[in-house]
Every structure is written in structure tokens, then in C-alpha cells.
Design brief:
The longest helix is centred in the middle third of the chain and has 18 residues, at 18-35. Helix 1 (3-15) packs antiparallel against helix 2 (18-35). The protein contains 2 helices and no strands. The two termini are 13 Å apart. By secondary structure, the chain is mainly α.
Length: 42
């Protein structure tokens, strides 16, 4: 997971910002799925 995403998630969890956590979670799955063409990261 990229450092910027870790930082954003940490901040969102501290603020208990559910909307931001969900958004970042969706970003991570999209990033992981789109960036892993040809390799399995499961």
C-alpha cells in the first residue's frame, strides 16, 4: 500500500470519518486491481 494512502487512512480513522475511510478503501481496491495486471496479489 502506498505511503500516501496509509497516511490518509490513518487520518480518517483518527477522525472516525466513515465516508473518507470507505472512499480510501475503494481507492485501494481499484488501485490494487488496476495496477496488478498479469500478477496475482490475492
Amino acid at each position: 500500500m502506498p505511503q500516501w494512502l496509509c497516511n490518509q487512512l490513518t487520518r480518517a480513522f483518527r477522525k472516525k470519518d466513515r465516508r473518507q475511510i470507505k472512499l480510501l478503501n475503494d481507492c485501494w481496491f481499484f488501485y490494487r486491481n488496476s495496477g496488478s495486471e498479469g500478477s496475482d496479489h490475492s
